[in-house]
Amino acid sequence: MYKPEEINPYTFDEFLQVRDSYNDWEDNEFLQKIAKHFIKEDWDRIAENLKTFSKKTSFKWRKVAEEIARPEKHPTIRHFDAYNHRIDEIVRPYEAVEMQNEVFAEKFFSDETPLWEQMLKRHLLHHNGEAGIMCPIACTDGLVDLLENFKHELPDELKEMLRHCKEGIDGDFGVGAQFMTEIQGGSNIPANVLKAVPEGGRYRLYGTKFFCSAIHADYSVITAKVEGSGHVATFVVPLWENKEKKIRNRYVINRLKWKLGTTELPSGEVTFEGSKAYQIGPLEKGVAIAVGIVLTKSRLDIGLASSAFMLRAVREALQYSQFREVFGRRIYEFPLAAGQLEEIERTAKRTTAGVFKVYHMYLSQKNRNDSASEAAKREQFLLRELILLQKIKAAKDTIETLRTAISIFGGNGVIEDFSAIPRLYRDAMVNELWEGPRNVLLAQIHRDLNRIASWYPPEQFVSDLLENVESAVVKEYAEQLKTLLACNLTAEPNVETVQAAREWERFCDDLFFHYQEQALKEVGDAPIVKKYSFKKQLS
């Protein structure tokens, strides 16, 4: 009697050994090269710290991320305890809770951790997808930045909150969230109707937020309309009155949301019933504060996620293409597959180069002292638009790149436990909508450029954005921009306005493509993976 392995001894073991022994930092020459290009101070210390950190992200936490992604491990909610107390407890697998504690203990937001080290550690974590971790990290980053911006006017409770998130208290680190979306508004924060009622120097919140991610967090940034003012303000809300006793800050969680991706992350719908809240910053600038500080950090993080998702997916596709034999040849030896692999590798590299260049500009502005000068004003505006352009372009390209990477695996590409790429693909679909979907941000860029055209003309804007790009290319884009800014993208749809909208979308895509390509040219190339010598299994 024949045994199955005697009839067909084919095995994936050699591929799996190569794939699963890859270290996302130490084995990626390109990522190291681009990081070293931008980090001028503390490089040796940061690089050494990343060696230790990457062993966790590439192996220990990767296994946890894959395990908690299984459908039976998704978060659930327990509304009542056995004694009829409303507790709305978010139930997550033990591994997810432990990983969150370990990750936050890395002190991402501590004054002890250099900003470039924070960024690179988050980038390495993103190689594992959302994993119920990355949204809380991004939200905590936004919360910390918000509190730091108004540090000198914070009440004691918020100062303690800031310390909890940055440095931890007795080994426990505060986790942040963002609750801004309402059923009628989506990305339209000015349409918020959640009511904030003044009470003794603080506020009480009443009403419902329709989509709230990281709902298991300790604190949240929340936007709400202040009663009697007409202004939508920004608030920081402690989510617990007593966490140990599971007493929430006067709100209930109506339900959890069933999402396409980021399924390990509990997202829900919340009704506030008089929750204590602290208003932050000038009342009349609440929307600008929420968008300019909090959402900016989240949009930067989506750029990091896009780069990391692509680098991992392309790396695994390249490895598999060298291993897998079809019709007598390795996958990469077929011209169609070779062309696809070259394209997605180039996309991953130019995206990564663009992400690092934008982040470098962000840190440079954060540290400069002449923020009132005309040059600084233009640079601040340029950075704002680059972050929006990057979010649009990188999120879209990630989906296309991962879809192509999946196809390299053939039928195995859609098997959820064969590789992480299907999960990354679903997470990428969510990232394209997070912090403003494509159409909303494209329209915002058009409004922004029209608004500032008197002091930052199109030709100067394009010249600054495409610095060091050939003058003929810059001139062509400047002329296109002047023409497209004259179009009315908010008019009623007709043949003319729809065509103008299509041209605007194409223009923004092409403009940022050139920015990314220039960034890659400045950094230079290096391999993502080496060439492997896999044994032939087929005769």
Note down, in words, how this protein is organized:
With 539 residues, this protein is an alpha+beta fold. Helices cover 52% and strands 14% of the residues. It is built from 16 helices and 13 strands. It has helices at 4-7, 13-20, 29-38, 43-68, 94-104, 115-126, 134-149, 156-166, 286-323, 335-367, 374-408, 421-431, 438-451, 458-465, 471-485, 495-523; strands spanning 76-80, 86-91, 176-181, 195-199, 202-213, 219-226, 232-238, 240-242, 247-248, 251-256, 267-280, 325-326, 329-330. Strands 3, 4, 5, 6, 7, 10 and 11 form a seven-stranded mixed sheet that branches. It has a two-stranded antiparallel sheet with strand order 1-2. A two-stranded antiparallel ribbon has the order 8-9. Strand 1 (76-80) and strand 2 form a beta hairpin. The longest helix has 38 residues, at 286-323. The chain is globular.
